[in-house]
Amino acid sequence: MNWTYVSLGLYFLLMIGIGLYAWRKSTSNSGEYLLGGRQLGPAVTALSAGASDMSGWLLLGLPGALYATGLVEAWIGIGLFIGAFANWIIVAPRLREQTEKLGDSLTIPQFLANRFPDHASILRIVSAVIIVAFFSVYTAAGLVGGGLLFQESFADLFNNVSMSDYMLGIWVTGGVVVGYTMFGGFLAVSLTDFVQGCIMVVALILMPIVILTNDGGWTAANATLTNINPEFLSMTQGLTFLGFVSAVTWGLGYFGQPHIIVRFMAIRSVKDVPIARNIGMIWMGVALLGAIGVGIFGRAYAAQNGIILEKPETIFILLANMLFNPLITGFLLAALLAAIMSTISSQLLVASSSLTEDFYRLFLRKNASETEMVNIGRLCVLAVAIIAAFIASDPESKVLGLVSNAWAGFGAAFGPLILLSLTWKRMTGAGAVAGLIVGAASVAIWIAMGWSSEIYEIVPGFILAFAAIILVSNLTKKS
Where are the transmembrane segments (predicted)? Predict the structure, then answer.
């Protein structure tokens, strides 16, 4: 019996079981299906926000970047940590309070429409289009991670299957996520995120320790890395000013990530926010340090053992298969699946909520029953998943590249908009529309022109959107 597959099978059954529990517990109306009835406790909120944020990027993209380039890539993690903390301080309490006060808003587009009623329709349409478009790409990044996992680890299990291991990984990963998301809604997504967050952080603590134990400790690893490149452990190796800005400004994206900030809308009360913040930041700090350790120490282990890795993003998978008992390997691969699936489920649900609440109810069936809305939401989850699977079908897709594009798109389009709508009373609906369009368009143009190699596209997008909101709001302000 292959205990790796047993561990993974138990993990899949646990996820489906949580989905069935949530289906019976909290899917009777749109408020329950999309926000869990605003009854999340602080621990579940914190780990759900963290797990849905980090995705396969934490166990694939970041360790791969560090493996290939060195410790200089850690600036991305530092920028994200600072941005996440600011998000909990500035956005979390205000968004929880204002979304409930302004018409009990269930989605970000709905909140914007209630905040700026004179531009309600166009805000809901534009923001929903942006959410669905960028989440299709973002979800594809998660499915790429699932495809890589199956391609690298389960070829022997599926060697008689007609389709490629990569595509099979995409469909299996997507199928399980769609299953518990469709039926269990927000509560299922949040509870599975909590379990997945626990699995992820244990794996990220365990793996660097085991690598060093097998690698001769820190002294041997340091000597090996120094031989590879004397500046491999330098945080300034080849770092330009624009490169530094591009790395740390990843943190700006937090203010505009709908799948993260929707957790703030669902927490039980504003009083629970500080507790959730402390739990979430501790979890994030430990997880980031673990991911950095996997990339850095994994490079030392590979060099000492003569391993040449063609795809640096698979270093976590390689180490899981080489260093551990099959039962533990299954747990570690489950942690990778947890990182992937927690984000995919959150993104699918937010995209589905925009399609149902901001298109279907708004334009097609204004008087639709709650049961009908929940069922339409389930169909939209499936539709977005199929689109994302098509985008992810290229096995050469880079997880970090897809994530960076979607992260920048949301950060620039919604970041300045959410910040100013919560903190600046003089902001107008016209300013909100201008910020959305300018932020999304500037990121898309920056990527299309190939300028992202010079500076990360979120920087110009965030600045231009912020300026557009202030300028248009001042030009259209009411007395």
Answer: 6-23, 74-92, 125-150, 170-189, 194-212, 232-255, 275-302, 314-340, 375-393, 399-422, 429-449, 455-475
CB proximity list for 220: less than 8 A, separation 6 or greater:
300, 304
CA 141 – CA 147 distance, rounded (Å): 10
- 463 domain-assigned: no
CATH number, domain at 348? 1.20.1730.10
The dihedral built from the CA positions of residue 325, 331, 333 and 339, taken in this order, carries a sign that is negative
Sign of the C-alpha dihedral computed for residues 447, 435, 126 and 358 taken in this order: positive
Domain contains 184 = yes
Domain that holds residue 300: 3-397
Task: Tell me the CA distances in angstroms from 394 to 31, 282, 390, 403, one per residue in order.
Answer: 37, 36, 8, 15
Instruction: Give the separation between CA 209 and CA 322, rounded to whole angstroms.
Output: 14
Q: Are 143 and 384 in contact (CB under 8 A)?
A: no
Please state the φ and ψ torsions of residue 413, each to the nearest 5 degrees. Answer: -75, -45
Instruction: Give the whole-angstrom CA distance, residue 6 versus residue 330.
Output: 7
- Give pLDDT tens digits for 284-306: 999 999 999 998 998 888 888 88
SS3 267: strand
Residue 58: DSSP 8-state: I
* Cα distance between residue 427 and residue 169, in whole Å: 46
pLDDT band, residue 278 (cuts 50/70/90): very high
Q: Cα-flanking dihedrals φ and ψ of residue 267, to 5°?
A: -65, 150
> Cβ distance 402 to 134 under 8 Å?
no
pTM above 0.85, yes or no: no
The verdict on residue 428 lying in a domain is: no
In a domain, 445, yes or no: no
b/e map 305-334, b = 16+ CB within 10 Å? eeeeeebbbbbbbbbbbebbeeebbbbbbb
Q: CA 461 → CA 415, 466, 468, distances in Å?
A: 10, 8, 10
Residue type, 226: T
